[in-house]
Automatic annotation (TrEMBL):
Keywords: ATP-binding, Cell membrane, Copper, Copper transport, Ion transport, Magnesium, Membrane, Metal-binding, Nucleotide-binding, Phosphoprotein, Translocase, Transmembrane, Transmembrane helix, Transport. It comes from Candidatus Uhrbacteria bacterium CG_4_9_14_0_2_um_filter_41_50. It catalyses: Cu(+)(in) + ATP + H2O = Cu(+)(out) + ADP + phosphate + H(+). Signal peptide: none annotated. Residues 2-67 form the HMA domain. It comes from the Bacteria. It is a multi-pass membrane protein. One of its GO terms (molecular function) is copper ion binding. The chain crosses the membrane at residues 87-106, 112-134, 146-163, 169-187, 322-344, 350-371, 664-680, 686-704. The keyword Translocase applies. Belongs to the cation transport ATPase (P-type) (TC 3.A.3) family. Type IB subfamily. Its EC number is 7.2.2.8. This is P-type Cu(+) transporter. The lineage of its organism: Bacteria, Candidatus Uhriibacteriota.
Amino acid sequence: MKKSEFKIEGMHCASCAVKIEGSLKKLPGVKSANVNYGLAEASVEFDDSVTEMDLHEVVQKEGYKVDTGHSGMHQHDGTKEAARKTIIAGALAVPVFVLSMFMIELGGVGDYIEAILATVAVLWPGMTFHTTAFKQLKRFTASMDTLISIGTLTALIFSWVNLFVGGHLYFEAAAVITAFILLGRYFEAKSKGQASEAIKKLLEFGAKTAHLLLPDGSTKDVAIDQLKKGDLVLVKPGEKIPLDGVVKSGNSNVDESMLTGESLPVKKASADEVYGSTINQKGSLTIEITAGAGATVFDQIVRLVRDAQQKKAPIQKLADKISAIFVPVVILIAILTLVVWLLITGDVQSAIIAAVAVLVIACPCALGLATPTAIMVGTGRGAREGILIKSGEALERGKNITAILFDKTGTLTGGKPVVTDVISVSGITKERIIEIASGLESESEHPIATAVVNYAEEKKLAIEKISDFESVTGFGVQAKMDGKNLALGNVRFMKKLGVDVDAQVEQIAKLEAQAKTVIVLSVSGKLAGIIAVADAVKEKAGNTVAQLKKEGLKVVMITGDNQATAKAIANELGIDAFEAEVLPDQKLEIVKKYQQAGEKVAFVGDGINDAPAITQADLGIAVGTGTDIAIESGQIVLIGGGPEKVIEAIKLARDTHRIIKQNLFWAFFYNVVGIPVAAIGLLNPIIASAAMAFSSVSVVLNSLRLRK
């Protein structure tokens, strides 16, 4: 199955997008098609029986142009063209309006000047409406352009007839309507550009070149698409890291804020992973490339944001259904308005003006923009904050969540044991306890041993050299140092060796009640110190739980720990409900249990081991950093940071959905009120066209509020 994405020029309302999408879906061999009016973009999946040219021909037959070039350039050119047409139309419409409103005769030729200027305005900058409408007429379809074309041409032709046979002239209506609608489209294009700036800004972050290290030690500047796995590159201070890789030599701080949303730089040394497009701040780094161009974490983020902006939210389906029949219904209302006015009043002039007002005030554009612009801005804001939202559906689900289930490890806790307590028993200093213990543990690869050694390194303590090292499975380790017998392990190990620990039993029990693992150090057969190790709670986990509960959400912790350990961690975090001794394959059933109890469940996990539960949940949230991100599992992916991003993601989903509902309400309200008012003759066509232009812009501006 192949996929093609391309820009479409000439779409001016939601019905345009619906119509093109329907035509693409009818093409044999097309599996799925999505045309996004907000992005002016089509995304199509198709088999080998279809070519991209076939897709382009379908679009072109509908009367639109296909642009396969760079989307940013297309958007920039589209805004410039809209501005040019608006200026021309305005320059022509203003004198027509002045001549008409102030009844300036100019020696009897004023009406003819109006006629000429209005005709030029309608048929030059406004020609796009008529050409599109004509192409659609040949295919028995209609769009927003059809309404505008019929409305302006009717006013223009009616005025030309009256110019010679006598009667009121509406040249100013034809010219000013054209100018107002073009002005609205200019503002719409500019606003849509701001709404979709997330993709552009992400693309700007990407590195363009790299210093490739050659075998002789020299460097050569190359484009990043020329790099391949295994290549060595030099990254100097202040430069962007070109692609994902591993540090081979050098030390530095790297700004990963564009990836994670975290402002603090991250220390990098030999063997550390680095990510493309992040910024090297201080020292020079030699990096081995591990992912080629297009396969980096940064590339995944760009694809994810783009896909999210293309996908339609379920709430958009209603708008699409209405947009599909909107234009034909409006044309029927306009015809009905004309007929009723003629039957009741017999006034041709009033009948035509009322019908024209109906045509130009009707606006499916606002309906079409209501959802995609909000999703564009919402997903863009999320990307800047390290919150990747995969679809509009995730936004809708986020606002309905009633319970959040956290897989403890990696979400509420760090997932790696760290030293939490060091207690001196026999007068030996805490620092000395760690120096001896790290010497003993340096020979072991056990996670607890790693925690002790890391703690010594963080504190810049010397790691003692030992001899005669021996590991005793299930108990601990022992060795010699300067002729002294050393032992480090659990209480059972100490008792086995005859070390008296009775005086510290209460202290040890207290630490274990806090869900900590206790190891004891003895020197020459005497108790020297106690070290407690735990999977430490993340810094902002407790505050996150409190905020979620404040939002009215039930918070549940899921863990494989025993009941006592789980209760201790839950109490520390302020979590009232927890599921302990849970095996990986039982998480799915726990999610189902809460769903069957009537809860709308969000499951927060690492996105790999928790994939079934994340998929089953009403909203799956995958937490990870770098290459650990399981893009495929979660509907929302959180990059970097701590559990506080969960509350940020929920709030963003709720804010975005609220904006979508506001947009749809005003779009429906505008048309439901505006069309009847125009039909009964209470709305001048010029005011109607201005209102129509404003309706689309107001929807986009409302969506832009999400950027804050």
